[in-house]
Design brief:
The complex is a heterodimer of chains A (about 270) and B (about 160).
Chain A lengths: L4 E4 L3 H11 L2 E3 L5 H6 L7 E4 L9 E3 L6 E4 L4 H6 L1 H6 L1 H8 L4 H6 L2 H7 L7 H6 L3 E6 L2 E6 L4 E3 L2 E2 L6 E7 L5 E7 L10 E7 L5 E5 L6 E2 L1 H8 L4 H11 L10 H18 L4
Chain B lengths: L1 E4 L2 E4 L8 H8 L18 E4 L2 E4 L12 E3 L9 H8 L9 H8 L8 H7 L11 H10 L7 H4 L4
Parallel strand pairs in B: 1-5
Antiparallel strand pairs in B: 1-2, 3-4, 3-5
Helix pairs in contact in B: 2-5
The chains are: A alpha+beta (about 270), B alpha+beta (about 160).
Chain lengths: ~270, ~160
């Protein structure tokens, strides 16, 4: 790793200036980038260490008192320990708990998970189901991008080289939330499939990870549920709506069956009494 | 770069991008910390940075700047848990052992077996089946062991 060129930033403004002038790739907990470096697949060689930018490691609510604002450098451990996340976005706590082991939870950051853009990123279905907004900042200014428009393809995002992901915001959520991850073992698994779901009475939302090139919502299935169709009818819609990938971790047939089972599980578990 | 290593002020001239694991083993000569997978899956390279357990194979040395780092050598071979790992046969091939013991250092005074399993979920052992490791840790903390049949398998 010593051949990598790593420079540290001591403030967000300095980081943005360096990114504009030197085109460096930000690195925080290194739990993805150093794995790639170890395997010789890391493309960027000029890195910018932003791990210690405490100003990006805050969790709280926006001025409206409703919107949850999670700083990009919040670790999975931070999320699990945050009372406001436990209260507003419990499905994110569940997802964070299922990331790697404690070592990874202590270093991996929410911004890294989002920007890395793996379709198996554990927290991504949560932000998709939550209708989250990603806050991007550069010296040119700040912009907000709906999370569900952030990915342009497999591991491709709309972020520009001089932009830093500052925070992710989620609006307040009505209805029960759930997160399930299906992998080969309880800890340290990369998911075969993951689901985050919100039983908003008016607008149920379902998102899947590890199913396609990016995290996906299933709008037809959501519409079927919203209009009061039976879970059997909604399950049939889901089966027609998704076209899962085949890869080293699982088959398309398996993923389709488990996706339907997860939907059925969610609907049954969250049924009004 | 300056940091505190096992309680001693230490200065090492290494690349900021070097893996903390390599700095510990090669620059500091502390080979107790093992490299297993090199990708954050196995936990063999676990050390504490400012009290938090991390995989040292995934930490750029720059991020240990001014930090307190604890490796297995910091326990001096005299820690009660080290002896219990021997007495209970919590170590066989030994590669996972330093990481297991370091991860256990983050446990509270009275951990339940479930808490022990969560704390060690990022540390893989291919020899012991984990029961002997959990037994050593529970004895160290003076905690009763649930019956054996339920303590294995699920890790």
């Amino acid at each position: 790793m010593s051949e990598l060129d790593l420079r540290r930033a001591s403030s967000v403004d300095e980081a943005l200036t360096i990114m504009r002038d030197e085109g460096r790739t930000p690195i925080a907990g290194a739990t993805d980038l150093y794995v790639a470096a170890q395997f010789g697949t890391l493309v960027p060689r000029k890195l910018l260490d932003i791990w210690k930018l405490k100003e990006l490691r805050t969790i709280g609510t926006a001025a409206d008192g409703q919107t949850l604002v999670i700083g990009a450098l919040s670790t999975y451990t931070d999320l699990m320990q945050s009372a406001v996340v436990q209260d507003r976005l419990p499905m994110l706590v569940t997802a964070a708990r299922l990331v790697g082991g404690v070592q990874i939870q202590n270093r991996g950051t929410i911004g890294g998970n989002i920007v890395n853009g793996s379709p198996a990123g554990d927290t991504l279905p949560v932000f998709a189901a939550a209708d989250a907004v990603v806050v991007l900042r550069s010296l040119r200014g700040e912009r907000r991008v709906p999370f569900n428009e952030f990915y342009a393809g497999y591991r491709k995002t709309v972020i520009k080289p001089d932009e830093l992901l500052i925070a992710v915001e989620t609006p307040s959520i009505d209805g029960i939330q759930a997160f399930r991850k299906v992998g080969t073992r309880a800890a340290q698994a990369i998911s075969k499939i993951a689901m985050a779901a919100v039983r908003d009475p008016k607008r149920p939302r379902i998102a899947f990870g590890s199913l396609a090139a990016t995290v996906v919502r299933v709008p037809k299935t959501e519409a079927a549920l919203a209009s009061g169709n039976s879970i059997d009818e909604a399950a049939a819609v889901l089966e027609a709506e998704i076209n899962p990938i085949d890869d080293v971790r699982s088959t398309a047939v398996y993923r389709k069956r488990v996706a339907v089972n997860l939907l059925r599980w969610f609907w049954k578990e969250t049924a009004p009494a | 770069m300056k940091f505190t290593l096992n309680g001693k002020a230490t200065e090492v001239n290494a690349s900021p991008a070097a893996r903390l694991l390599d700095v510990l083993r090669e620059d500091c000569g502390l080979t107790g910390t093992k490299e297993g997978c090199g990708e954050g899956e196995c936990g063999a390279c676990s050390v504490l940075i400012d009290g938090e357990v991390v995989c040292s194979c995934l930490v750029p040395f720059a991020q240990a700047d001014n930090a307190e780092v604890l490796t297995i050598e910091g326990l001096n071979g005299t820690h009660p848990l080290q002896k219990l790992f021997m007495d209970e046969v919590g170590a066989q091939c030994g590669i996972c052992t330093p990481g297991m013991i370091i991860a256990a250092m983050t446990l509270g005074e009275k951990p339940t077996l479930d808490e022990v399993k969560v704390a060690l979920a990022g540390n893989l052992c291919r020899c012991t089946g984990y029961s002997a490791i959990y037994r050593a840790i529970m004895k160290w903390r003076g905690m009763p062991l649930p019956d054996e049949s339920s303590s294995a398998v699920t890790a």
